[in-house]
Amino acid sequence: MEKSEKTALVTGASRGIGRAIALTLGQAGYAVAVNYAGSEAAAEAVKNEIIAAGGKAFTLQGDVSDPEDVKHMFEKIKEGFGFLDVLVNNAGITRDSLLIRMKESSWDEVIATNLKGNFLVLKAAAAMMIRRKKGSVINISSVVGLTGNAGQVNYAAAKAGVIGMTKAAAKELASRGIRVNAVAPGFVHTEMTEVLSEKVKEGATAQIPLGKFGETEDIANAAAFLASDEARYITGQTLHVDGGMAM
Ligand code: NAP
């Protein structure tokens, strides 16, 4: 791949919010590594859309919760890009159930992908960014990490953990020229929220001051801002993009 001036890795970029972030960064001139776990065709489509719009991209398979996969992903990034300017830690899953019915496996899977996965990718990216004393990391948390949500103790714990990790990493990496921020989306129209019952969707909408679910582009615009030099004096922050749910 021809070397680019600006590069970005977006995890979980085959669908939903990650897809929108990858497309937005592609439009902003970043060469994008489009990570996915299993949806190869969808990731290829995202890559092709970026290229069709005049950008650069390649697909990057890898389970963010698997240290060997993450190692392999960063070997490919080194090969394809040589360096990394922006990491968007977006990959995430839900395994909802009420606390007393929650299986240990549901806890483990969500913590492994949403928290440990974030850590593994952040660690590998930071090692790469430190060499150039430059970088911006955006971790995708959730409003649920701030407010809690019945049926999601695993998810809320992981997403609150992401905010703590963001602040600690921001303090460690600031002197190396690396900014680390989080975006906490509210309810956004994606496959993740499509599965919610109409009753739950109505209940959620009633808690949103702006009165509707967000769109993936709303999160992508916030992530692109935090990635950019326009946010050069912002680090360790969590930007709420939730229609006013958590104030
Ligand atoms: P989504 O539509 O379900 O897409 C999830 C993405 O993550 C897919 O690209 C999926 O890849 C990838 N992924 C899942 N497990 C992975 C793993 N182990 N390794 C690598 N990639 C993996 O989800 P979404 O709604 O866009 O959510 C994106 C992020 O925003 C998540 O962190 C989520 O918690 C957060 N968020 C979402 C909402 C919302 O309302 N939608 C609200 C707050 C926060 P494959 O397609 O290959 O499986």
Could you give the topology of this structure?
Layout: E1 7-10, H1 16-27, E2 31-36, H2 40-52, E3 56-61, H3 67-80, E4 86-89, H4 104-132, E5 135-140, H5 144-147, H6 153-173, E6 178-185, H7 191-194, H8 198-206, H9 216-227, E7 238-241
Parallel strand pairs: 1-2, 1-4, 2-3, 4-5, 5-6, 6-7
What characteristics describe this protein?
single chain; 247 residues; alpha/beta; seven-stranded parallel beta sheet; 9 helices; 48% helix; binds NADP nicotinamide-adenine-dinucleotide phosphate
Shape category: globular
Let me know the average pLDDT.
97
Tell me the series of helices and strands, N- to C-terminal.
EHEHEHEHEHHEHHHE
Beta-strand percentage range: 15-25%
Number of strands: 7
Low-confidence stretches: none
- Provide the list of bound ligands, each named once: NADP nicotinamide-adenine-dinucleotide phosphate
Share of residues in helices? 40-55%
- Rg, Å, rounded: 17 Å
Q: Compute the separation of the termini in Å.
A: 44 Å
If helices are DSSP runs of H or I spanning 4 or more residues, what is the number of helices?
9
Structural class: alpha/beta
Strand order of the largest sheet: 3-2-1-4-5-6-7
Largest sheet report: 7 strands, parallel
Task: Describe what this molecule looks like in 3D.
This protein has 247 residues and is of the alpha/beta class. Helices cover 48% and strands 15% of the residues. The protein has a seven-stranded parallel β-sheet with strand order 3-2-1-4-5-6-7, with helices on both faces. Strand 1 (7-10), helix 1 (16-27) and strand 2 form a beta-alpha-beta unit. Helix 3 (67-80) runs parallel beside helix 4 and helix 4 (104-132) runs parallel beside helix 6. The radius of gyration is 17 Å and the shape is globular. The model has no long low-confidence stretch (mean pLDDT 97). Bound molecules: NADP nicotinamide-adenine-dinucleotide phosphate (NAP). NADP nicotinamide-adenine-dinucleotide phosphate binds next to helix 1, strand 2, helix 4 and helix 7.
